[in-house]
User: Fold L-serine deaminase from Poecile atricapillus.
Amino acid sequence: MKIVSRNEELLRDALSCVPQPSSRTSLTSCNKLIRFEDISAAAFKIQCGVQKTPCMYSRLSKQYGMDIYLKKEFLQYTGSVKERGVLYLLMSLPQEQQRKGVIVASDSNFSMAVAYHASELHIPVFVIVSTSTAPARVKMCREYGAMVISYGTTAKDSQVHARRLAQENGYLYLEEEDSAVYLSGLGTVGLEMYEQVPKLDAVIFPAGGHCGLLAGSAAALKHLNPHISVIGVESESFPVLQQSLKAGHPTDDQACNNHHFYGDVSGVCFGSNSLQLTGKLVDKVVAVREEDILISMLRLLEYERATVDAEGAIALAALVAGKLPELKGKRVAVVICSGNLELHLLQQCIARALTLDNRVCRFSLVISDCPGDMSKLLEILAREEARVLDIKQERTFVTSELFTVKVICTVETRDKIHTAQLRNALLERYPTTAWTER
Assistant:
């Protein structure tokens, strides 16, 4: 956690020692960064303020050949695991600072967690957002109890304004980073999973630019059982964690995508504590494609009735993409950490995922513009059990024979095999059928 105020000593890391470079992975040296006792203390202190979310056996287990348990952190009040670290941080503030208040400058899950828990603790809280922030996010922060101020057209504008307000009024400016206090709160996820699922073989976490959850939970899990494999998952579009581990320090990835779909997955906000813990305790970091994340979101919606965002789905995406074949037959826990997907994105994501999963397809063909020809096409679709989503006819600009009509049809199928069967049936009757590739 990065703290900026007139008195930066108001909140110090729970542990201040600097890690020494070592060629060996040592749990003792890692505990200099964050101790298991710190995580246990955090779990005790926040137990009345956050949900002990379920870690449930998933019906996806049979599909992927392993026992999958989903840690449903999206069930937290604000829909995000960030509540754990935020609550522990706010409870650790001196009473004088709690009286003065805190201020944040973003529309992220972190800011929403600060807005809610600060209000619950009767701490004055201010959220500064840019004018381009989604109205739903602004409304949510206000409903949580924060004073929300729109300022500037960019995130940088709102951050500068928030820092100025903090300096002038004595507020504590909070920016998500990786203090031991914050990591200890996030690490309680690992503690809970170990208690909820006996004999775990592996745990999969989201990583990317925000790897505090991965680092903190790894500290808890490796202390309890060093044989549990801890795996992080990030996006191929911006593999910032892998690049930083290779470089030995946090790096800026110029390819980071600012699209709201990625949310907290993109960008770099971890510091040396998170990176050191990840390098020493995490067994593997893999990258997945955007397509895998979308299909993972679809699987969670269909099998678990869980509506999650990219950050929430990215850990499962590693299994969807077949990136971890060594886990076949193992007992695996997957953290579903966030469910704050904006409504206008939900429809786009699901529609795109169905196409990527070969469940929605489009084709075009030319038929005679005579009575009964269209009904014959519909009969084939009905016989093949394809659900027609949309059908259009083009007569004016058809370049083939006169008195023909071009039909463009979008249909829904069960799966890839069903799509192939439909395609063969159409080609048999209409050899010129053109299939629109996804």
